[in-house]
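Sequence of SDR family oxidoreductase (Gaetbulibacter aestuarii).
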Amino acid sequence: MSLLENKVALVTGGTKGIGYAVALALLNEGVKVAITSRHEKAAQDAASELVKASKTGAKALGIEADVKDYDSQAQAVAKTLEAFGQLDIVIANAGLGHFAAVDELTVAQWKETIDTNLSGVFYSIKSSVEALKKSEGYFISISSLAGTNFFAKGSAYNASKFGVTGFTQAAMLDLRQYNIKVSTIMPGSVATHFNGHTPNSEDAWKIQGEDIGMLVIDLLKMHPRTLPSKIEVRPTMPPSK
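Predicted 3D structure, token representation.
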């Protein structure tokens, strides 16, 4: 029996990429999982696929929600609690990227990046914190190596991920008094559908989604006395430039 069996998790942006892989890893440990997407059909279809792909038959729930909107995220938490009765784990994964030189970046692109990547993490923890207090649960944000390393044409994305890293670390200090653990995972290049990319055989050198799923499970199984609060993850051997 897994240490995590019958726990309940909410994964934002769980229909593909890192979110989907994390959701599957959780299901394989017997965790009941709710995933969100801005599109209801995509969320429900992915939830069905996850149950079929999992080893345990644990339940999955697909919820339409937009992390840019606090009320929408709060409703996703409420639906998770209604379906499963508790909430033990929140994975704030939903994100996007607009990449352009700052003189070319539009106001709309800036706002969408900050609202999704940074405010979305705040809304995720704000809407779930009372449930996590009850369960003495775990909140994990998916930041990026771009949260400490800036690059050209990355002003909006860097700002959002620098913010996520700082926000999550401050939240960790605020919430540990309630026995809530808070961590941020900072991946480098991952083979996902991010920014319109389609994973292919040339992505073999990159971090795979299931690698992040394994890392999440390792964090959740860590002895309660120990908290890896910020984890940088990078490919072992990227191509030479």
